[in-house]
Design brief:
The protein has helices spanning 2-16, 82-86, 90-96, 173-184, and strands at 21-25, 30-34, 38-41, 47-53, 59-65, 79-81, 102-104, 120-127, 130-137, 144-154, 161-169. By secondary structure, the chain is of the alpha+beta class.
């Protein structure tokens, strides 16, 4: 009986140690990701840039600095003039087949509501001690998924502010779900008190 109990306890302890995640420390922040993902090194010019490669070979890039992009500032609209659409490659046209878009004759004379064709939508949620914009394409798998945090520090009228963006492009549903879960795990070690 004792031997059986000892074996069961040992198995329980060993099985608890097999986490399917790992934590990566980028210095300014930590993120917990699936073990199958790997770090991706990039050299930034005016900000700290790096990223991850997923198990499906998607590249997820972050930009931490003064010029980190916020996709919601310049909303892309999936409306194309016929002449522009005619120049698209077959691959681009195929990508648009299951995406809500509009092809018009002329931008000057066409009548449409641009907000019906926005490429992205976003919602606010928290990451560590900050509010973040979680951005995703309206058409699953077509466009960028990720986050933007506006002011980690600074931000006065005459000062530069440090922002964080972290994005992946054309992610499958399952990868986007894993990515958002990982983003929610971020610990902004240098910025939260």
């Amino acid at each position: 009986m004792r031997k059986t109990l000892s074996i069961l306890i040992s198995l329980l302890i060993l099985s608890c140690d097999k986490s399917e995640n790992k934590t990566i420390d980028y210095g300014a922040f930590e993120i917990t990701v699936p073990k199958s993902w790997s770090e991706y090194k990039i050299k930034g010019i005016d900000s700290y840039v790096s990223g991850l490669i997923t198990d499906k070979n998607d590249t997820l890039i972050f930009d931490l600095g003064w010029y980190s992009p916020d996709l919601t500032k310049n909303p892309e609209v999936l409306v194309f003039e016929q002449s522009e659409y005619a120049e698209f490659s077959d691959k681009q046209k195929k990508q648009l087949e299951n995406v809500k878009h509009l092809v018009i004759e002329d931008f000057l004379t066409a009548e449409y509501d641009a907000k019906d064709y926005f490429k992205y939508e976003y919602e606010l949620d928290s990451i560590d001690c900050f509010i973040a914009k979680f951005i995703k394409p309206k058409n699953k798998g077509y466009g960028v998924s990720g986050i933007y945090i506006d002011s980690l520090k600074g931000g006065g009228p005459n000062s530069n502010k440090t922002s964080l963006s972290f994005y992946g492009n054309n992610l499958s549903d399952s990868t986007q779900t894993e990515f958002f879960k990982a983003l929610k795990s971020i610990k902004l070690t240098e910025y939260c008190e």
